[in-house]
Amino acid sequence: MNDTSSLLKEIGLNICGHTDKKSFNLLYRADTEVKVDEFHSKCDGKGPTVTILYLKNNTIYGGYTSEDWSSERRKTKADKHAFLFYKNDHVDENCDFIPIAENMKSKAITCDPNFGPTFGWGPMFTKSYDLQTFKKDSKSESECRDGSLILNGAMNIGCAYKTQSRKIRRDIVSNLPEEKGARGTLAVPEQTHVTDPLLIKRIVVYQVVEKPWRKFPTDKELQEMKKRLEDFKPVPGIGIKKYNILLLGAIGSGKSSFYNTLATVFSGSVKLHAPARGAGRSDTNETILAYELKSESGKHLNLQIFDTRGFGENKGYNNELEKILNGRLPVEFTFPDQSAPVKEDELTHASLEKEMHMVCFVTGTSNLDTITNEQRIQINDIKACVNRKGLPMVAVVTKFDEFNESILEDANQVYRSLEARNAIKRVSNFFGIQEKYTFPIVNYINDEEIKEGNDRLALQALDAMVRLTNDYLENLKDSLQGKETEEMKKRLEDFEPVPGLGIKKYNILLLGAIGSGKSSFYNTLATVFAGSVKSHAPARGAESSVTNEVHAYELKSKSGKYLNLQIFDIRGFAKDRGYDDELEHILDGRLPVGFTVS
Q1: Are residues 397 and 423 in contact, defined by beta-carbon separation less than 8 angstroms?
Q2: Full set of structural domains in the chain with CATH
Q3: Bond before 197 cis per omega within 30 degrees
Q4: pLDDT tens digits, residue range 37-76?
């Protein structure tokens, strides 16, 4: 960690009561020239900021305010959270903090169109401040000389910011630069006064923001994510062409709006394919609907989004959900007004391609506050049904733009909102879904233009869904292959020869060159059914054949049951060793087991 990182970490901890919740965005930096107008253009109205002066003698001074800087004339602002600080510019040194005096909290900072960052307010008519970095007056705001930036500001710590520590006051004085125009004394008991100029190496102003509670992708990562989703292919070898994602949620939770948001993200223009309304009614028309996603170039993604009616007090999926998950209810199936068993003629043939591969719960930020006990039971029944199927589940939380205007204007602010994080935790706990698979979403509702923040949140959610679905289907593929192997093995152990032909076993003859592995192949078959490694037939390499006689081997299961198969093995052939007339007799069954091939 460098010196600046160490300092910012200490400042962040001091702001938050020793919890690391803040991050810092650079707003303003100067090391050759300062301009009051540039400071105001970059820093006014940016909320909490920290100003840092790196002095010529490797000492750091600065101040923090939670209030906005502004260009109002001689406007003092109250800020009980404001403080000044100083530190030796060394990573091992601790930062000392000087709080605003209790009776001076109304004069924490002074804003003026002619002032740079200015902290405190001196006695009437003195025009002195605890820390004034630079200003517009008869003197130049700054001058660059001999590698230093000379500011026309001054420090007079002790006007509004005070400390009872004699050590801190003494250290401040002793660390100030003893340059021409600077004066001070080690014995200053209450105030530390330094007239202009201030000799510094640089000045920086950082915006102080909440540290994102979840990492969000950079613009480059976002484009890569979008391209990956547009190009992804389903897990091969299981007979499916698209991943099916089922949206479930209460009436008015934002399911249809979430699909519209996804469609907007990939098409590059605001889409409203799925009708969306508020919480008064569900506009999925009581049917199962399937939507596709299409890229800006017209390419269809290998995804289908399934939407069903929202559930409510008297509307659920008691008879339908399991069949939806198993792909037995067709698209446009209409839910009955009254709960009733699904008729057999309404069901379709089940297949993995028609099944749901992922379930996404959609809920608003405030939905949980209005859920009744009956609905809780309903949701628990839904979760139990999904869990029995073993499907991956995520939760999408909508309507974060209702929290505050900053999120409405820029959805990226969701990750800096403590209120938003608490909402995610509540939803995660309620549905029993890991917090990392609970995603905030700001849907496109009345928007006419694309918003990068909305896209970012939606892409993160969908990318995670596809990755989870991929893992689920990869595991299912392994399971299916293992299941298919066991079914095949059982079928071979139980098979009976075609009746009416007078045969009890099927005879299979192995032919091959010397050393081709005929005997080893039989041993492998014997091992598969026995459940342990077998070497009934002697095997060698390519140099010689050890099978000179006609051999007949049987296969026996682990339970001791003989399969209705006989494996016949004979000598391997070579350039000067064939079967002459023996092969025809072997095929006709005229040569007995044990016959020696010449």
Answers
A1: yes
A2: 3-210 (no CATH), 240-472 (3.40.50.300), 506-587 (no CATH)
A3: yes
A4: 999 999 999 999 999 999 887 889 999 999 999 999 989 9
